[in-house]
Amino acid sequence: MNKLLVGIVLMGVIALASCEQKLPPPTPPVPVNVIAVVAKNVTYFDQYPATIQALSQVNLLSEVQGYITGIYFHDGVEVKKGQVLYEIDRRLYQAALSAAEANLKVAKGNYDQAKQDADRYIYLNSYNAVAKQQYDHAIIALQNAKNQVSAAEEGVHTAKTNLTYATITAPFDGTVGFSQVKLGNMVTVGQTILNTISTNNPMAVDMLVNEKQLQQFEGFQSNKKENDSLFSLLLPSGATYPLNGKISVIDRAVDPQTGSIRVRLVFLNPKNELKVGMSCVVKVGNQETKPQLLIPNKAVVEQMGEYFVFIAKDTLSVHVDTATKTTTDTVETPKPRAIQRKVKLGRTINENVIVLAGINLGDRLIVDGVQAIHDGSIIVLGSKKGGDGKSKDTKMEGKKDN
User: Fold this and answer.
1) What domains are there in the chain, each with its CATH number?
2) What pTM did the predictor assign?
């Protein structure tokens, strides 16, 4: 009986012990790496896809119909304004001009005859020596003859114009492309494209920018003397074009569907390196002259559309006595903790980002281990060394999404 009682007591003690809640072990410090926040002079470029265009470009069309009888240039060469490029069969238009000139002579002869008759009847009418009807007919005949001369003169003018159109010249200095017609081809008025000519110096570079940046580019346009070095060009080969450009025109309206607006730059092209239709990238340099707080992108945490970083700070761990409402230090030395800071970000530059507000120069920024910590987490600093706190110049490039 005593043994049974002892066993029951032992089982109760064991059950009671098993029901006691075990306290969780203290959370170990999270290892992190930190760097010192430093200010740097940052030169960055926003990049915009662009297309090279000619400032002037036209398709050469014929104003008269006929067969091509002459081509007086080589494909792809530079031509001067007024230089003869094509000739259409002139014989029909030369014959039409000769006929028009002959008609003009006949009309002038009829006019001279009508004038003589009219002068005679005017004289006789002054003495009432001619019937009124004959006098009136003579005056009308003179006016008709005069109108016939005017019509014949217009006919000559039209014939001369058509004969001129049979010779097609360059409308301005530029470069012609491949001829779309050959000798003997028939051309139709206003339909057959003979060739395309475009100017080649300077050249236009068209790009689309977001409407949010419109004010910035309007500022560039108004300060023409200060933006000479802001706009550079990256060619398809990857090389940088040696000459800088300037803003020429900002389009009159924003595209409501894309929220973008076209901006045209102008670049000199003395060596004809830029070709119409070429794809390129416009690099727009920043105008910020003050040092910027530049931190690694990996140090930033996004939460609900807001951005945060963690700063390492040494803080004392305290114990609060609820009965007396007093606090006492539980450790003799401060412990490093992660303190969350909300930040306002600027432009992203490769693997870094500019911070506009939220942190200060010299703060110890946590760059590794940010996913394992929260505001107030106890941390232990790793072996990675941070910045030296000195201001350095950094030159980087960043793409601008439109």
Assistant:
1) 30-43+290-399 (2.40.420.20), 47-55+199-285 (2.40.30.170), 62-87+168-194 (2.40.50.100), 91-165 (1.10.287.470)
2) 0.62
For the segment 240-265, what is each residue's pLDDT rounded down to a tens digit? 999 988 888 888 899 899 889 999 99
* Segments of the chain scoring below 70 in pLDDT: 1-27, 223-229, 287-289, 316-333, 383-402
What the block records as the tokens of 115 is: 């004038």
Omega of the bond prior to 202 within 30 degrees of 0, cis? yes
Q: With both helix axes pointing from N to C terminus, report the angle between 132-165 and 91-126 in degrees, rounded to the nearest 10.
A: 160
- Given this model, what pLDDT does residue 25 score? 60
Quick check: helix, strand or coil at residue 351? coil
Per residue in 112-124, pLDDT tens?
988 888 888 888 8
pLDDT of residue 388: 41
User: What ranges in 256-295 are assigned the alpha helix state H?
Assistant: none
Q: Is 134 helix (H, G, I), strand (E, B) or coil?
A: helix
Question: Residue 217 in 3-state DSSP?
Answer: helix
| Residue 282 to residue 272: CA distance in whole angstroms | 18
What was the pLDDT predicted at 385? 44
| SS3 state at 64 | coil
Closest CA to 216 of 263, 259, 256, 281: 263
Q: Which of 191, 192, 166 is nearest to 179 (CA)?
A: 192
Q: Which residues contact 170 (CB under 8 A, 6 or more apart)?
A: 79, 80, 81, 82, 83, 85, 176, 197
8 Å CB contact between 293 and 358: no
If one counts every other C-beta atom within 10 angstroms of the C-beta of residue 149, the result is: 20
State both tokens at 321: 């006595």
Rounded Cα distance, 293 and 42, in Å: 9
**Residue 158 to residues 79, 88, 100, 166, Cα–Cα distance (Å):** 28, 17, 9, 13
